Amino acid sequence: MNPVKILVSSETDDKSGAVAIAAIPGVELVDYDPNQPTLTDRQREAEIFLPPFRGSDRPIRLLQGLPKLRMVQLLSAGVDEWENHVPGHVTFASARGAHARPVSEWVVSAILTQLRQWPTLIGFKESGVWAHRMFDADTLAGKKVLIVGAGAIGKAVAARLEVFEATSTLVASTAREGVYSYTALPDLIHDHDIVVITAPLTETTRSMVNSDFLSTMHDGAILVNVGRGQIVDTAALVVELQSGRLRAALDVTDPEPLPAGHPLWDCPGLIISPHSARTVPGTNLLCYGVAAEQIRTFITGGIPSNIAR
User: Which position among 96, 192, 228, 296 bears the catalytic label?
Assistant: First the structure.
């Protein structure tokens, strides 16, 4: 029986992660350059395609050159960049779960940065000012946090916040035990000090955090977005930040990358991270570990747990 050919990026982050894929019985790895516009004859024989760990949308154009393609396995939790390009007959899976640890760590760090006034402290330090009792810090203990998105990342955020004695409320597309439906949001928003967006981008969540949503957040509340930039209405957020009524921490923006001169750069009370919440050592290995399990299940006739459709 011929081995299943798997197309894996030749970039550094992918070379180290691909070890987990190579360990699957009955497979043959074929490397490719995500920046090349075409594939070689050998690469075209691949049945499974892994986009690269970084800049995963770059090789979308290569899909049309894979006549034997049976599966696309992403290394990202979100699938919105690829879902309209992967043919309907091809199994399509994500690396959901792999990003929970690094992204939830970023969320907690962003919340603490805002509450403990680190941007203000850095300003005092740069000015050589000993700012004892010159600013108002806050504590995470006792805060109520609304987490919109109850997947692996949202649950990991809730678990980490519990250590700080904060209380989390989880919301998702459908209600289940311990999780509210999106339809409950209007009644939940005002009662929370912090809103964390970990939801995927769908037609339902696109522009979900609009002017009505933001105006319902109480004065001094914090918005944290690690989902997708398009979930938040940027213009509406700018208005709230410029007024000083809300604070925010964004790992994702709309547009992205955020261009020079964009109003968000000058908004007070805002922390911006360049879509790098997951970017710490070892995340690529976590993603490839999940991908390997999905592929192993697929080639042995099972249905991957992270199947996107």
Answer: 228
Catalytic residue among 28, 162, 165, 256: 256
Give how far Cα 224 sits from Cα of 49, 152, 220, 250, Å: 33, 17, 13, 6
Report pLDDT digits (tens) over 271-305.
Answer: 999 999 999 999 999 999 999 999 999 999 999 99
Q: In what order do the strands lie in the sheet with 48-49?
A: 27-32, 4-9, 48-49, 71-73, 91-93
**Distance (Å, whole) CA 232 – CA 206:** 7
Q: Is residue 132 among the annotated active site residues?
A: no
> Is residue 228 annotated as part of the catalytic site, yes or no?
yes
Query: Active site includes 256?
Result: yes
205-262, pLDDT tens digit by residue? 999 999 999 999 999 999 999 999 999 999 999 999 999 999 999 999 999 999 999 9
Q: Which two tokens stand for residue 231?
A: 């979930």
Q: Which two tokens stand for residue 253?
A: 């923006």
Rounded CA-CA distance 167/207 in Å is 26
Asked whether the beta carbons of 157 and 104 are under 8 A apart, the reply is: yes
Considering the entire predicted model, what is its pTM?
Answer: 0.93
